[in-house]
Amino acid sequence: MRQVRKRAQGTDHRVRVVVIRFLLIASLVVAGLKLVQVQIFEGEALAARAEQQRAMTIPIPAHRGSIVDRNGVELAFSVEARALAYRPVARRAEIDKWNKTHADVQLDFDKETAALAKRMREVLGDQVVEAEVLAKLRSDKKYVYLVDKVEPAKARELQKEFAHLTLEYRAQREYPAGSLASNVVGRANWRMEDPVPANHSLHGLSGLELFRDNLLAGKPGKQIVETGERTDAVIPGRGRDLQGAVDGSDMELTIDADLQFFLQQKTAEYGQRSGSKRVSAVVMDAKTGEVYALANDKAFDPSAPGGVDPKLMSDPSVTTPFEPGSVNKVVTAMGAIEYGITTPDAVHSVPDSIKVADRVIRDAWDHGRLNMTTTGIFAKSSNVGTLLLAKEINETRFAELLGKLGLGTRTGIGLPGESPGSLLPQKQWSGSTFGNLPIGQGLSMTVLQMAGMYQTLANDGVRVPPRIVRATVRPDGTRVEEPRPEGIRVVSPETAKTTRDMFRAVTQKAPNGNSGTAPLAAVTGYQISGKTGTAQQFDKAAGRYSDSKYWITFAGILPADNPRFVVGMVYDTPVYSTPEGHSAAPFFHDVASFLTQRYNIPMSKEPTPIVPLIK
């Protein structure tokens, strides 16, 4: 019996040994298979995942190019700054974990954040509102921006005391002249709503900052760095896969900062004096089409605290067209001379009205039949005389002139939102259209397009589209001139000179009804060629042209005998009953006088001859 029990116990022992051995072998087989799976089949993926957990991509910012005027005066440039950020949720979790494992040394989240907010106020002064910063520090967000545009030295000082404060690189855009040329230069800034990590570059928001954003911004680089296992701290010397940043190019404008300042002041002044909704003006080189100044009566400061009203960031001088009125009579004048229809001294019998299709057009003043010279028709701005000449030009040739003058198409100056104006194709003209166009109604244009017509006269019949960027300078210092637009021959040099000379009579003051419409535009010692304009605004509600709302325009050439500059200006809905509200001639006079001094323009060799307008 005892032997039987012993044999049974021996058998059980051998069975257990076999089972244990089997389990051990099975475990080793499973472990081996798992090792094979991890090392052979999943090794590459797991290694990549571990790499991702240890690696972080850091943008390398590109320096944004500067914008300068034609004389090198800085209008916009960038300086290095920092943004301070914080991770409230992560920091609160770190403190809770610490306090659970370090009973002897406890951390207090509220005390730490209060100390940080107070210290930020001490170091940064008015940049910080302590209560607002404290609220952000104690929020339930993963990542919050505390303050922007911090000097790098002050940012490092704060991070040295509070290691959990995050510093982000910022390039702060500076506009040293404030609102000077802001409609042209525009504005660039950070978009603080960008996800973290933000694209470490400024964004153009308006003007050339927007239109030439890629050129100015350059291309940021990137570097992959390794971080600690439980922190975002970068491990020094462990960076790789470096892609260098390409800095942006500088931009040199055709603008003259001193002239731009003067023109902005004057547009604001005449905007107030005339009671206009808006005033815009441009000064253009008579030969090259370079824009020396482009201004509106309302400007904005791109660096103003609290941001800028988006409505002020538009540029009406290029975005808002208008009906030019009698300034457009220059088209008829050029056509009448070009096609041999008349001469400056030829006399025309001009009645008090003329019928075109179903419309009767009259002059701005009451008169019987007058014997007017061709020069007189334009100097006294006779609608009836202009339409008599336009009829002889004919619709087809008139439409061709409008096209050559660039009306109905954008100038291509390179500013955002530029309007082409409006001009119906000839095939869509109605019977009364040709009663409107020669006197500047039924089409619209920008102040640039209007000045461009007179630039054609000043440049001996060749229109050169305006430009506002003169050159770019690459990061390596290479200067690249902007392509010069090709000129468009509109009329012959002889026609341009003859028309230019005729339009000198607009500013003459003479007895017996021989004064032009704008003697107040005259500048002592200089021949001035130009034209006034008054256009009724279309009242959409009434479905007709208004009897009380007008566009007031002027375009002129200085000096007429040796053109250097073309100046154009427009008033939107001035108080027409006031002297300042029914003519822009005084505005032109002020600008032309400044130009003669600023650029030391020699006086005309001869005074403007007084010519008969009515015989």
TrEMBL record:
Family membership noted in the UniProt record: Belongs to the transpeptidase family.
Compartments, record wording: Membrane
Protein species of origin: Actinokineospora xionganensis
Keyword Membrane: yes
Penicillin-binding protein dimerisation domain span: 59-229
Keywords recorded for this protein, A-Z: Membrane, Transmembrane, Transmembrane helix
Residue ranges annotated for the Penicillin-binding protein transpeptidase domain, each copy included: 280-591
One Pfam family cited in the UniProt record for this chain: PBP_dimer
PANTHER family for this protein: PEPTIDOGLYCAN D,D-TRANSPEPTIDASE, PEPTIDOGLYCAN D,D-TRANSPEPTIDASE FTSI
Domain of life: Bacteria
Transmembrane residue ranges: 15-36
Keyword Glycoprotein: no
Protein name: Penicillin-binding protein 2
